[in-house]
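Researcher: Go.
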Amino acid sequence: MAHIITAACIGTKDRSCVDACPVDCIHPYPEGDGQAAYDQAEQLYIDPDTCIDCGACVPVCPVSAIYPDDDLPADMEQFREINAAYYRNR
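Model: Structure:
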């Protein structure tokens, strides 16, 4: 997994990262996944198999919720599995 979205995204679901992503690896979003999926999601998630590690999402996140895999703070480690599980369960 190249980048991971963490706790600061919970409840905000700002779409700046979705708009910045060149490979459409951040989900859910209403136009691509449907409004119901977007409304039900607690946060946004980065697909570990699609992310190309470009980093375009990091500087545009207004709540600083996105970290490169290698820089994930220890207290946010659980979000590595939370992001991966979202895509396993899709």
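Model: The longest strand covers residues 3-5.
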